[in-house]
Structure formats: structure tokens, C-alpha cells
Write a structure and sequence with these properties.
single chain; 134 residues; alpha+beta; Nuclear Transport Factor 2, Chain: A; four-stranded antiparallel sheet; 2 helices; elongated
């Protein structure tokens, strides 16, 4: 008994090839993201350390830079923007202590195993407010 050859339509072949290409792009993206994370792992801690030093210097010059207050505002902004999302660490990554008070900014990054959230804080008078959560 002879089995008949498989006949595929042109559309079927195109869909199979398209699916294979999409799978290859997905795998390539995962590999590239992991490589980027490994490359930047050392510099992230350097940025956190530099931001901590800048905070200490800003605190010495200006009374409004209280880390505990800033972290509380950042945590509240994350809770409001992403209810129920849990994160492992909250890192201060940027301090912008410009002349005066109204242009002061600080950025925190909340790190979870599967995602990150960046919170930009701005000064309004004597208090900190969340400008945006990315």
C-alpha cells in the first residue's frame, strides 16, 4: 500500500515559515535581553552608589532631602500606579539637586524578578511628590 504525498497549500507553507521566523525572533530577543542584563549588572550598582553619594551631599546642603520621606512617596506612587504589584528592592538611582528647590528631582527604581518600575519625584515647596511612574 502506497501512501499519498502530503499536499500543503501555499498559504499553509507561508504560515509555517512565518511561525518559524517569529519563534526565532522571540528566542533571539530573549538571548539579547539576557546578554544586556549581564553587561549592565556591574554598572547598575555603580549608579546606585553614585546616587547615594549625591543624596548625602544634597542632604548636607539642603534640609529637604530625607531619604525615608522620599522612599515613602515613591512606594505610595508605585502602589497607586500598580496596585498589587510587589517588588524586592527600591533603589535610589538619580539625584538632581539643582539651585533652588523647585527644580530638584530624584529617581527611584523598584526591582522585581520579572520587571522594574521607575519613579520620578519632584519637589513642591517643602515636600516631595511623584511626578510619574514608568
Amino acid at each position: 500500500m502506497v501512501t499519498p504525498p502530503l499536499a500543503l497549500s501555499t498559504i499553509g507553507i507561508v504560515l509555517i515559515v512565518l511561525g518559524a521566523v517569529l519563534v526565532l525572533f522571540f528566542i533571539g530577543g530573549l538571548v539579547a535581553a539576557r546578554a544586556r542584563d549581564r553587561r549592565q549588572a556591574g554598572t547598575f550598582s555603580d549608579h546606585v552608589r553614585a546616587a547615594d553619594e549625591a543624596l548625602e551631599q544634597a542632604k548636607a546642603l539642603d534640609r529637604g532631602w530625607h531619604r525615608e520621606t522620599m522612599e515613602a512617596v515613591a512606594r505610595a506612587a508605585i502602589d497607586e500606579a500598580r496596585p498589587g504589584w510587589s517588588y524586592d528592592d527600591l533603589h535610589l538611582v538619580l539625584v538632581e539637586d539643582r539651585p533652588g528647590v523647585q527644580e530638584d528631582r530624584a529617581q527611584f527604581v523598584a526591582v522585581a524578578p520579572d520587571a522594574e518600575a521607575r519613579v520620578v519625584l519632584a519637589r513642591q515647596g517643602d515636600r516631595w511628590v511623584a511626578e510619574r511612574v514608568e
